[in-house]
From TrEMBL:
InterPro entries: DUF247_pln (IPR004158). The keyword Transmembrane applies. PANTHER family: BNAA09G04570D PROTEIN, BNAC04G53230D PROTEIN. This is OLC1v1010214C1. Residues 53-68 have a biased composition (Basic and acidic residues). Residues 28-68 are annotated as: Disordered. The chain crosses the membrane at residues 488-515. Residues 32-47 have a biased composition (Low complexity). Keywords: Membrane, Transmembrane, Transmembrane helix.
Length: 531
C-alpha cells in the first residue's frame, strides 16, 4: 500500500493506457471473428435468385424460399398451360349440351329447368327431383332381370366413354369418375326404358298398368317436356352403347335410338297436320340418325326431324367460307321482319291455312299469306325456348326455328292479331285467352341475338312489306273492310248501283225526247183530197 501510494502519477497513467489498449484489441478481435462467421454463413446460404435442389432416392425437393409473388406466377403459368391443353384438345368442337346463357334465362327461367326428372350432370341430385331416382333404379333392375346381365357390363362400358361424354358438356362437371359413370348408367337406362315402352308397350317390359311412371299416365307428358330441355340431355352415343348391350343376348328390331327418341317426343310437335309424305310409323325406320353432328342428343334429333320433313328452308345470304364461320351479331332489340296481322289485313293481305305438317313452311303469293297450322299448348313455350337456346349456343347451327318464332312474334302483337289468325285456321290454342298467346310469343325472343338478314323468311318478308307499301292495295282493302264487310252491304251497294243506272237511263231518254227534232208525217198512197 505504501509502495503504491509512493509511485508517481505518471506510472499510474501509463498502466491505465496499457489496460485500455488491451481492451480495445480484444474487442477488435471479437468483431473480426464475428465478421468472419457472417461471411461464412453468407457463402453457404443461397440467395433469392439461386435454387438448390437436393436429390434423394424418391423425389426432388425445391429448397427455394417461396414468396407470394412466386405463387402467383405459378398459378398464372398453370392457367396458360391449361389453355394450351384445351386448344390442343379442341374440346369446344365436341360440345353439344350447354348451360343456358344468363341473358336468356332471365326472360323465363322456368322454361329451362326440369320439373320432374333430371338427366345429365347439370341438375343431378337436386332436392326437388330426387323422388325420380327410385324409379330410375327400378328401370335398371328391370333391364338386368330381362336381359340376365350383370351391372358391371354397363359400368365398364360407360367407363370407356367417360372422357368423351364429359367433353359433350359445357363447363366443369363437379362429379368424380365413379359418380359420373353411375349417373350415365342410371339416366341412360331410364331413358331407354321410356323409349322402348312407348313403342312396345310398358306391359311387355314387365310394368303394371298402374305404374306411376312407366305407363301412359299424365306424368308421361311432363317427362317428355323435361327431355327436350337443353340442360337436361344425355349424349346419344351413350344411349346407343347401352342399347347395344341390351341387344347382345336378345336382339330386337325396334329401330335405332334416334328413331325411338323421335317417336317418344313426337307428341310435342306443334302441329296436328298429317305428314305430307308418309305416316310417322312408315318414316320412322328410314330416319337418318344425323351422322354429320359429332355430338347428338334428344333435343338435336327433334330439331333435325322438324327440318327434315321436306326440303330445309334456305337462307337469303350467300354462304362463303368466311360467312359460314362468322358470327352474326345484332343488337338485342325486337327484330321487325314484318308488320302485325291486323296491319297486314288492313293493307289488303289475306291469311290462309297451308296444308302441310311443316309448320315453318310459310308462303306468300298474290296478296295471300299461307301459314301452316300451329298448335299452342302448355308445353309449346318450353319447346320453342329450348330449340332457340340450342340454335343460339351450338357452334355453326343455323337459326331456322329462331327465324320462324321471330316472324310469328312480329305477326302477333295483340289479342286481335291472335283472333285474326285463329279465324283463318292458322292457329289453335288451349290457353286461357288470346292475350296469353300474344304474351307467349312476345316473351319467346327476348334477349335473342339474331340477324334478320340471315333469316330464311327475310325474302318473303320483303315481298309482304312491298305489297303493303302499295297505296292501291291499301285503298282497295280499306274500301272492302269498311264498306263491304258484310253481305248486306254488298246487296245494298248493288241495289244502289242499279238504281243509279236506272235513274241515269230515265234521265237520258227524257232529255233525248225533249231535244229530238220533229219530222213531217210521211205521205200516204193517196193524195190529200182522197181518191
Amino acid at each position: 500500500m505504501t509502495v503504491i501510494e509512493n509511485q508517481p502519477k505518471s506510472a499510474i497513467w501509463l498502466t491505465l493506457q496499457v489496460s485500455e489498449m488491451f481492451r480495445r484489441r480484444q474487442k477488435h478481435a471479437i468483431r473480426s471473428q464475428q465478421s468472419q462467421q457472417r461471411l461464412q454463413q453468407e457463402q453457404h446460404q443461397p440467395s433469392d435468385s439461386l435454387r438448390v435442389v437436393i436429390k434423394d432416392e424418391t423425389a426432388n425437393v425445391d429448397r427455394r424460399p417461396k414468396s407470394p409473388e412466386s405463387d402467383w406466377l405459378i398459378r398464372i403459368r398453370q392457367k396458360v398451360e391449361d389453355a394450351h391443353q384445351n386448344h390442343r384438345a379442341n374440346t369446344w368442337s365436341r360440345r353439344c349440351i350447354y348451360r343456358i346463357p344468363q341473358c336468356l334465362r332471365e326472360s323465363n327461367d322456368k322454361g329451362y329447368h326440369p320439373q320432374v326428372v333430371s338427366l345429365g350432370p347439370y341438375h343431378h341430385n337436386k332436392r326437388r327431383l330426387r323422388s325420380m331416382e327410385t324409379h330410375k333404379w327400378r328401370a335398371v333392375l328391370q333391364i338386368l332381370k330381362r336381359t340376365n346381365q350383370d351391372i358391371k357390363l354397363y359400368l365398364g362400358a360407360m367407363k370407356e366413354l367417360e372422357e368423351r361424354a364429359r367433353a359433350c358438356y359445357e363447363g366443369p362437371i363437379p362429379l368424380s369418375s365413379e359418380e359420373f359413370v353411375e349417373m350415365m348408367v342410371l339416366d341412360g337406362c331410364f331413358i331407354l326404358e321410356l323409349f322402348r315402352g312407348s313403342v312396345e308397350g310398358f306391359n311387355q317390359l314387365g310394368y303394371s298398368t298402374t305404374d306411376p311412371v312407366f305407363s301412359t299416365l299424365r306424368s308421361m307428358h311432363s317427362i317428355q317436356r323435361d327431355m327436350i330441355m337443353l340442360e337436361n340431355q344425355i349424349p346419344l352415343f351413350v344411349l346407343e352403347r347401352l342399347f347395344s348391350i341390351q341387344q347382345i343376348k336378345h336382339p330386337e328390331h325396334i329401330g335405332t335410338v334416334s328413331e325411338l327418341a323421335l317417336r317418344f317426343v313426337n307428341p310435342l310437335m306443334p302441329t296436328d297436320e298429317p305428314s305430307s309424305t308418309k305416316s310417322t310409323d312408315e318414316t320412322a325406320y328410314q330416319f337418318d340418325p344425323l351422322p354429320e353432328l359429332v355430338g347428338e342428343h334428344c333435343l338435336a334429333v327433334f330439331w333435325r326431324s322438324i327440318l327434315r320433313k321436306g326440303s330445309q328452308p334456305r337462307t337469303t345470304v350467300n354462304e362463303t367460307p368466311d360467312s359460314v364461320n362468322s358470327v352474326s351479331i345484332s343488337i338485342r332489340v325486337r327484330q321487325q321482319l314484318i308488320h302485325g296481322a291486323t296491319e297486314l289485313r288492313d293493307s289488303g293481305i289475306h291469311f290462309r291455312k297451308r296444308e302441310t305438317d311443316r309448320f315453318w313452311d310459310i308462303k306468300f303469293k298474290d296478296g295471300v299469306l299461307e301459314i301452316p297450322r300451329l298448335l299452342i299448348h302448355d308445353g309449346t313455350m318450353t319447346l320453342f325456348l329450348n330449340l332457340i337456346a340450342f340454335e343460339q349456343c351450338h357452334l355453326g347451327c343455323p337459326k331456322y326455328i329462331t327465324s320462324y318464332v321471330i316472324f310469328m312474334d312480329n305477326l302477333i302483337s295483340s289479342p286481335e292479331d291472335v283472333s285474326i289468325l285463329h279465324n283463318c285456321g292458322v292457329m289453335e290454342h288451349w290457353l286461357g285467352s288470346d292475350s296469353e298467346v300474344a304474351n307467349l310469343f312476345n316473351r319467346l325472343c327476348q334477349e335473342v341475338v339474331f340477324d334478320k338478314n340471315d333469316s330464311y323468311l327475310s325474302s318473303l318478308s320483303a315481298q309482304v312489306n312491298d305489297y303493303c307499301d302499295n297505296r292501291w292495295h291499301t285503298w282497295r282493302a280499306t274500301l272492302c273492310n269498311k264498306y263491304f264487310n258484310s253481305p248486306w252491304a254488298v246487296i245494298i251497294f248493288i241495289a244502289a248501283v242499279v238504281s243509279l243506272l236506272l235513274a241515269f237511263i230515265q234521265a237520258f231518254f227524257g232529255v233525248y225526247a225533249y231535244y229530238r227534232p220533229s219530222t213531217p208525217p210521211s205521205p200516204g198512197p193517196f193524195p190529200p183530197g182522197g181518191p
